[in-house]
Amino acid sequence: MSEIDYNKPRGWRHGATWTYLIMLLASAVALVVSFVLSAETLELARNPGQKLSCDVNAVMSCSTVAESWQAEIVKFAGLSYPNAFFGIAAESVFVTIAVIGLARIAVPRWFAICTWLGGLAALAYSYWLTSQSLFVINALCPWCLALMFSTTIQFMALSHATAVVQELPVNRDGVRKYYRLNIDLMIDIVWLVALVVIILVKDGPMLFS
Question: What phi-psi label fits residue 23: left (phi over 0), alpha (psi between -120 and 50 degrees) or beta?
């Protein structure tokens, strides 16, 4: 008779269906937003100086962000590539990984680790772009904010699935307790609220002017 592992998180919130479903929904939103941003980038390229539909005021302005150098940081052979194009590629991969997780298909540990590292890289890139919008460009794009929040939730769900479903890292007693006691849920809520507060403190009055 096998010994019961009381440290292992249990319940529907810690299962593959829930964790990967949240990841799938967040990744799908991020993918759709990336398509919208790509379309607006092409529209701006065809009609330089044109105001976009999400240009609300001086602060909430997609065109201001899209025309900054931060919107096209990858350059090769004399050409620059909009960030949104890479968003389409990356989020398509995350959607596929979420579907694999929902299908309960076993993946090697190295694949799960690389997936989590990829999610971390996507989150760091998104936060860098958001910080540039807030503190350097001094303009915000509604679609970019939607992408940042969906990427954040995607990473939260991916981390949850990696720790509980994929059972990584191997020496994970502390990680198990973190999820078993639902500390992750409290941290995630504080995390999202903190992002909202930062945006409102920096540009709150101007967002609704």
Answer: alpha
How many residues belong to the chain? 209
Spans of all domains in the chain: 12-207
C-alpha to C-alpha distance for 130 and 115, rounded to whole angstroms: 23
20 contacts 98 by C-beta, under 8 angstroms: yes
Q: Domain 12-207: what homologous superfamily?
A: VKOR domain (1.20.1440.130)
Question: What confidence tens digit (pLDDT) does each residue in 58-95 have?
Answer: 788 888 888 888 888 777 767 777 888 899 999 999 99
- Closest listed residue to residue 166, CA positions, set 116, 117, 124: 116
The ranges of the chain with pLDDT < 70 are 1-7, 77, 207-209
Rounded Cα–Cα distance for residues 147 and 81 (Å) = 18
pTM above 0.70, yes or no: yes
Cα 60 → chain centroid: 20
